[in-house]
C-alpha cells in the first residue's frame, strides 16, 4: 500500500466514524420524540389532537398550557386535592416522569 491509499483509507475510516455518530444521535432523537408523542397521545381522545379542543368544548385545551401549571394540576388530581370526574383516575396511572414529559410536550405547542 502506498502513502496515498493509506491516507484515503484513513479518511474513509474517519468519515464513517463521524457519520456513524451522527446517525446514532439522529436515531436516538427520533426514538425519544416518538416516545414523547406516544405518551402525550394518551390525552388526545378527550383533549383533542395536539391538545386543542373544539370551540365550546367543556374539556379544557392543553396546547400552550404552562408546564408548571399542568404539573401542579396533575399532582392535585393524583392526590385528590382537586376534584375531578375522570382526571383523578387518569393521573394515578402516570409516573411523575411521564407527567413532566407530557407537560413539556403540551407547553411547547402553540395555542
Ligand atoms: C377520558 C377523557 C380525558 C382524558 C383521556 C384526559 N383528560 Fe384531562 N380532563 C378531562 C376532563 C373531563 C377534565 C375536567 C376535570 C375533570 O372533570 O376530570 C380534564 C382536565 C384536565 C386538566 C385541567 C385543566 C385546567 O385548565 O386546569 C389537565 C391539566 C388535564 N386534564 C390534563 C390531561 C392530560 C395530561 C391527559 C393525558 C395524560 C389527560 N388530561 C387525559 C378529560 C380527559
Structure explained in plain terms:
By secondary structure, this protein is an all-alpha fold. The mean pLDDT is 88. Helix 1 (3-40) packs across helix 5 and helix 3 packs antiparallel against helix 5. It has a single domain (3-107), classed as Cytochrome Bc1 Complex, Chain D, domain 2. The chain has 5 helices and no strands. It starts with a helix and ends with a helix. The protein binds heme C. Residues 42-43, 45-47, 59-60, 62, 70, 73-74, 84-87, 90, 94, 102 line the site of heme C.
Record the SSE blueprint.
Layout (H helix, E strand, L loop, with lengths): L2 H38 L3 H4 L19 H13 L7 H6 L3 H12 L4
Helix pairs in contact: 1-5, 3-5
The structure holds heme C.
Report the CATH superfamily: Cytochrome c-like domain
E-strand count? 0
The set of bound ligands, ions and cofactors reads: heme C
Whole-number total of structural domains: 1
- H/E element sequence: HHHHH
Q: Which architecture name does CATH use?
A: Orthogonal Bundle
CATH class: Mainly Alpha
* Count of alpha and pi helical runs: 5
In the CATH hierarchy, the third-tier topology is known as Cytochrome Bc1 Complex, Chain D, domain 2
Largest sheet: none
Q: What average pLDDT do the residues reach?
A: 88
Strand content: under 5%
Helix/strand/pairing class, anyone?
A: mainly alpha
What is the CA-based Rg, rounded? 22 Å
